[in-house]
Amino acid sequence: MSVPRFWRKISKRYNLEGTRCTQCGRTFYPPRTFCPDCRRSGEIVPFRFQGKGEVVTFTVIRTASDAFARQTPFVLAIIRLDEGPRVTAQVVVENVSEAHIGMRVRSVFRRIGTEGDSGVIYYGTKFVPDVPYPEG
Amino acid sequence: MRDVAVIGIGCTTFGEKWGTSFRDLFLEAGTLALEDAQLPGEQIDALYVGNMSAGRFVEQEHVGALIADYSGMASRHVPSTRVESACCSGSLAFRQAVIAVASGLEEIVVAAGVEKMTDVETSISVDALAAAADREWEGFVGATFPGLYAMIASDYMHRYALTREQLAEVAVKNHRNGALNPIAQFRSPITVETVLRSSLVADPLRLFDCSPITDGAAAVILAPLERAREFTDAPVKVMATAQASDTIALHDRRDISTLDATVAAGRRAYEMAGLTPGSIDLVEVHDCFTIAEILAIEDLGFCVKGEAGRLTEEGETALDGRIPVNTSGGLKACGHPVGATGIKQVCEVVQQLRGDAGRRQIDGAEIGMTQNVGGTGASVAVHILGRT
Predict the structure, then answer these.
(1) Three-state DSSP class for residue B283
(2) DSSP output for B298-321
(3) Does the predicted model carry a pTM greater than 0.95?
(4) Which CATH superfamily is domain B4-121+214-236 in?
(5) Does the beta-carbon distance from A63 to B201 stay under 8 Å?
C-alpha cells in the first residue's frame, strides 16, 4: 500500500475512529461516508469506538502473502465491536490454539506490516484477549 | 427482448501452461468456438472478454483491444469490451453478451474469458487475487483469500453439523469428475485421507480444499435463438441471466455463512426462467474452496441450510446423484483461471445438454445452471441454460 494511501487513513487505523449516522444512529467501522440506510438524508460524523468486542469467526493463517509471511501462523478474525460493526483484524495470542469463537477481545496499537526491508512500517489496530490486568 | 442461444463453445485445456501466452490462450479458445459453430470470423459483431487481472499477471491492460487485434478483428474495427468482476468476470462477460444479443443491438457475439496466472510467482498471484476482497480493510491486516473462506468455514462449522470429512468429500467428488474431463488440470482421483493429510493453509481449510492457480481460456458464441439453427443442430437456449451484488468485505455481510448475492441472483434466475430448483438437472457452482460449494448448494435452493454436507456425503451431488454438482470437476479439479471460469462453466453445461460430455454425461440432461462468484460473494452471476 502506498504511503499517501496509508497516511490518509492513519487516524482511523490507529484510533479505531469510524463514523456514525446522526439520522439512524448506526455506527460504521471501517468508516463510511455515506449511510447505506439513510442514504443522502443521513449526516455522517466521526465516531470513536471503545475497542472492545467479541470474535465472531476466525482462522489461523498458515500461508500468507509476502508482506505477512514472517508473521505466520497468526490468528485472523472477524470481531463484532460492542457498538455493533464487525471488523477484520488479527488477534494476538501466545498460542494460536487459544483463539475461539465468542472470545472477548480488546484493541491494541500494533505494527501491522512493513514494505520490504527498507520501506515504510505500517501501524494499526490488532486485538488481544480481554482479560483483567493482574493485580499488584 | 429476443431469445438468445449458444451456438458454439471452445475451451483450452486448463493447467500450468508455460509454453502458452495470454494471447495464444484466447486465440485457441476462440478458434475452437468458431469451429464448433462452423462460423467464419467475419460474422462476429462484438466481443466481450472476462478477465480479472491481466495488469498484475502479465502487466497488460487494454486486453479487449489486444484480443480483437490478435483475433484478426482490428481491421473490421469490431467492438471489444473487457469485463471485470474478479472471479466472476467470465460470467459477466457472458451476461453482457447475452444482453447485447437480446436487445437486438448486436447479432453474433463472442463471450470469452481468459487468465494467464503462472507467469508470476505464486506470492504475486495470491496478492493479485486478494485484490478481489477489500484491500484497505481486509488485505491490509493480512487477510488472504483462503483465510476469508476459512472464516466462512469456521462460522459454518460452529453453527451447523458439517464435519471435516464431509467438507473433504466435496474435493473428492470434484476430483472424481475432473478425472473424466479431458481439459481438467487435475485428472487423478483423491480420497478423504488425501485432503485431511494435506497441509493446513488457513484453518480449517487445507491445500486440497483450495482450487489451484491455472492458465486457461474459454469462449462461447451467441446468436438470436431464431437464427441459431443456421449454425448448429443443437442450439442451447439461455433461459435466464441474473446478477447480484453484496458488500465487498465479508465482515459487513448479513450472515457470514450465506452468500446473499447467490440467493438473490438464484431467485432472479428461477423467476426469469419460470423454474424451481427441482427442474435443474445439473449445476456448475463456484467451488473456489470446498466450503463455497457447500454454501452454493444451499443458497441456490437445492437443500436447506446446514444440509449440503450430508447431501454431498450421501452422493446426492455426484454424477449419478439427485442434483449433480460440478460435473466438469469444478474449480477444484478442472482448474480456476479466474476470468475464464464463468465461461468454462457455460461450456460444460452446453456439452452436457448436447449429450457430448462423454464419461461425465448426465443422462437426459435438459436444463443446467451455472453460479459464478466474485470475491467472497460481493458479485454473483447465475445462468440457466436449456436444450431446444
Answers:
(1) strand
(2) HHTTSS-TT-HHHHHHTTTTSTTS
(3) yes
(4) Thiolase/Chalcone synthase (3.40.47.10)
(5) yes
Q: Which residue, chain included where needed, has cell 499477471?
A: B57
- Dihedral sign, Cα of residue B17, residue B23, residue B24, residue B28: positive
Q: Which residues contact B58 (CB under 8 A, 6 or more apart)?
A: B21, B22, B116, B119
Assign A7 a pLDDT band (cuts: 50, 70, 90): confident
Contact A77, A58 (CB under 8 A): yes
Q: Does pLDDT of A39 surpass 60? A: yes
Q: pLDDT tens-digit profile of B354-383?
A: 999 999 999 999 999 999 999 999 999 999
Q: Which residues of B are catalytic?
A: 87, 336
Under 8 Å between Cβ of A28 and A10? no
What does the alpha-carbon distance between residue B164 and residue B205 come to, in Å, rounded to a whole number? 9
Topology (CATH level 3) of domain B133-210+238-387? Peroxisomal Thiolase; Chain A, domain 1 (3.40.47)
- Predicted-complex ipTM score: 0.95
Grid cell, residue B158, equals: 460452529
Mean pLDDT, range B296-314, rounded to an integer: 98
Check A78 against B151: CB less than 8 A apart: yes
In a domain, A20, yes or no: no
Contacts of A66 in chain B (CB under 8 A): 123, 127
Nearest CA in chain B to A127: B141
Summarize pLDDT for B49-96 with one digit per residue, the tens. Answer: 999 999 999 999 999 999 999 999 999 999 999 999 999 999 999 999
Binned at pLDDT 50, 70 and 90, residue A136 comes out as low
Which residue carries 443456421 as its cell? B230
Does B200 sit within 8 Å of A86, measured CB to CB?
Answer: no
The gap from C-alpha B298 to its chain's centroid, in whole angstroms, comes to 17
The CATH number of the domain holding residue A98 is: 2.40.50
- Distance from the Cα of A28 to chain B's closest Cα (Å) equals 10
pLDDT at B265 over 90: yes
Q: In Å, what is the CA distance from B355 to each residue of B232, B236, B352, B359, B365?
A: 14, 12, 5, 10, 8
